[in-house]
Fold:
Amino acid sequence: MPTMSIYSHALPLLATVSMITIVILSLYGSLSNAAEKFCHEEGLSMDVILKIAAYTGSGGVVVMWLKGFGFFSLTFSVLSMPFLYMSVTQNEDDETPVNMLKLNNGCVRVGLILFLLVFAGFIADGIYVLSSMPGDCLYGKYGENTSAVIMWIVFVFSIVFVMLFGFLISPFRANDK
Structure:
């Protein structure tokens, strides 16, 4: 009877938890009532309004980035569930091909690498958005700052996810048996 260690399940499970956290936080940060109030307060002077106009409310770049990133991550999560399921349930001693979702499959590997490149592009874009955002929006001076804080948390989980998923599709892991 083949036995699998808990460590062979750890990477796919941690990657799944990280991706689910990214999806939930991104969609909450972009679709909640806090997103409409992000960096938006009544009675601000015109020079302050012009300074923060691109970031204000549900149409601002922070909330739009969270929305795009959340829906992209959700789509990938749904499409990758069979892959993650197969990597967890596949026995190491089993020599029979399970199906086309095998980890060594070139098409699956290319698709996952392309996803990681798009994911990294989202992260680079988000870094630009956060670095150009006025600090007063981040610190809550002009209203709600929940979306900006969620964006920082999503970055941390995204970096963890990319590292974990990179280890999953690593060619060294595929050749080790």
Remarks:
- The chain has one domain: 8-91+99-170.
- DSSP finds eight helices and no strands in the chain.
- Residues 8-91+99-170 form one domain.
